[in-house]
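Hey, quick one: can you model this chain's 3D structure?
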Amino acid sequence: MIIITEDDNMREKDFNYIVLQNILHNIDIGIHVIDKNRKTVLYNKAMAKLEGLSIDQVLNKDLLELFPSLNEETSTLIKVLTTREPILEKTQIYINFKGQNITSLNSTIPLFYKGEIIGAMEIAKDITYIKKLSDKLMDLQRELKGGKEKYNSNGSIKRYTFEDIIGKNKKIVEAIEIAKRTSTSPSSVLIYGETGTGKELFAQSIHYDGNRRNKPFIAQNCAAIPETLLEGILFGTEKGGFTGAVEREGIFEQAHGGTLLLDEINSMSLNLQTKLLRVLQEGYIRRIGGTKDIPIDVKIIATTNEDPLESVKKGTIRKDLYYRLNVVYIHIPPLRERTDDIISLTNHFINKYNMVLNRNITDIDGEVLNLFFNYSWPGNVRELENTIEAAMNYASMNRTVLRKEDFKSTNIFDNSRINDFQKPLDVALPEYLEGIEKEIIRKSLDANDYNISQTAKALGIKRQTLQYKIKKYYE
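Sure thing. Here's the predicted structure for all 475 residues.
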């Protein structure tokens, strides 16, 4: 029996307080808390850095005294005190106290105790860098649209066609045939395939094989950018539409007459999916802050790396949007279901990297091919390509045949991994699979000198996914 004294309780409270304070002041998300009298009671380092102030300047000060440009209507903290309703994921663009242009993604939440409101908390994520990148992307796309013919004629940008899709497997041939038939149709297309199967390759082929080939092809990843920024990228903005907004056309306008690829549509917020559905049904867009309806003629190709019906069941894709997009459905099979294409794909990538790396590889050892056929290829065709490229960098310059020892930077020939699958389970399946994944990541990190980008590329996953898994398994 353990007896906890009052001193022990006090020490535990002190410890918890110290831990909480360290968390609040060391995370990269800004936190600002006011009480019901509008005085600041908590202001962390991230928020101080974001707004260009010191913590001492803000603590115990009235909000409007410190920020005279705000009032009861414009301050989200004061607004939630009054309405008692949260304001979630609102983009704010402003000049901080150091004169810097800041873009933040804010959520403001009322705080209650025993049913009474006692204050409000604002959580802010600095997305200034993401905003700058998205603006540059939109400007670049507009420039490319303006000088498209001249730019394409010199061959400086690779355009994929159906000739670039390698494979004779029945499933891949069927997918290609469906894609070819839809290339001259204005109907929406939904492409489902695991990461690395070649979804954008199919999307570009549909565009450049069809009657829109001389019009813009614009691709946008829906998972890479926060909702409020993505909305501006899609539909454009009008000056004065929100603080800091400028007049800029969105990619729907830029893709007019051509094709818009919406990659990872299942990552788009449901709110934005509703607005997208309206555009698809009505055929026009309205810029953020604008009053003018702008007609658009755009062929939509949407992709997902998750079974779309499962996404509908889970609620990550709206059912009505699914039916609107799924006019033509293309399923790209994973590499493990088309192993008969491994030899032709391998030869294709060897020829490709012979030119890139100035090599003269003419063949691949039979032992390697046998292992290729028995590997599950979770990263699909992209992983196979990365594997071939890596081996051709490792092979000595006088080598003409790729051998097993040339694949040192990959994990696909690790005997311990192959044997693991032959052992009986002595733990629960999820724990068993996590153990395998953890070991794969550890060895890949070691092989790539703990370079996150190179390791993610070798594993055929996104950099953010790898960072998440590293935190999950090793921190």
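One thing worth noting: Confidence is low (pLDDT under 50) at residues 1-6, 147-156, 415-423.
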